[in-house]
# Entry
Amino acid sequence: MSIINSIKISSTETSTTYNWVFEKITNAGLDGKITNILTSAILLLGATILLIIVDYVTRKILRTVFIRLIKKTTTTWDDYFIENKVIKHFSHLIPLLLAHQILPEIFIGFPAFSVILSKILMILLIITVLAIINGILKTSRDILKTSNAFIDKPVDSYLQVIQIFLYFICGTLIFSIMTGNSPWSFLVSLGAASAILMLVFKDTILGFVASIQVSANDSVRVGDWVEMSKYGADGTVLQINLNNVKIQNFDKTIVAIPTFTLLSDSFKNYRGMEQSGGRRIKRAINIKISTIRYLDEKEINALRKIQLLAPFIAQRQKEIAEFNSKNNADPTVLVNGRRMTNIGLFRTYIELFAKNNPNIHQEMTMMVRQLAPTEHGLPLELYMFTSDTQWVFYENAMADIFDHLFAAIKYFDLEVFERPGSNDIHEFIKNQDPYVKKLTTEQQTF
# Structure
């Protein structure tokens, strides 16, 4: 009995259940050490069965009843609790709390192992609570993203900052539990290594600062169309977080660029264009300069049949006649006085065509201007905006305009400049060289 008394602990320090089982096994006449092991084994088996039952009941109540209630509601925000596994993590909390109370008492006859087990259970509790809080934060993020006020804000960046802070707190608590030291001693040691930490987390710190400034300045939002040629990015912003910005290009590839590059490098944001309601057309038709000339009365009368130009030509003829009469212009020399040119009427026709085109925004800048002549002819540039910013609409509207103008330019006896092709050179040589022309004729006869 002396061995039993030496192993047995007073009721103020041990569990009543442990003492009861210990006494029952001792009465069977077993050795004290074996009795201690059997007591812990029997109690562990009972505790395991109890914890399994508690876990099953908890899951049934929380994960079944609550999930059914959530699915029956008309609101959608509570569905995020299921998607982010908040209820699943919470269902593990009750069995862990129960295990933390009963398992150390089961191994009270093994003080060293009991201390280690208590620390492990405490660490598991901290991790579970962290998972629950993390799930709630993700749920809050998803709910905020459904709000118009936050749909284009970098909510992921703010979530990651809070997560880093929580991970740091949990890491400090876990370190304190494992070492048995105060959390403050750990923080003091971190203060001494702050320079190293800043070096390790440099990109995270820069990304955090960039996220705040991007949000404060409203320079980039989720859903914006941005272009950063340096990084091969030209598409829609999908996500802004601490470390990178995800951009989906129009070819459906995804580019991830560091968040801080939004501050250090230049980029183009097309949000202003999309909000304005108009998308710019800035394209020129190169006119062959040798085809530009004055028009005679016969040609002017022929162009008056164009309905858009008829009122303008009538008004212009009246103004020109008054000016030439007033200044006694000699009509035998065309450069005297004022005359109509085919390029001038064509430019006016383009302006009138644009003003009567429903695909062109009538409230924005609209003009047809001549650029400086080059070796490629005289650029006649269309500068105007479409009435819709959608890419497909924009391309179709611009194509329709230039399809029409390329076909209509012949009515003004103008030519579009283009470099000669091989067939053009071949025809030119045939027409200029009598020998080649004769040889070609003989070949065709043969």
Observations:
- The longest strand covers residues 279-287.
- Strands lie at 225-228, 233-240, 244-249, 254-258, 268-269, 279-287, 367-370, 378-386.
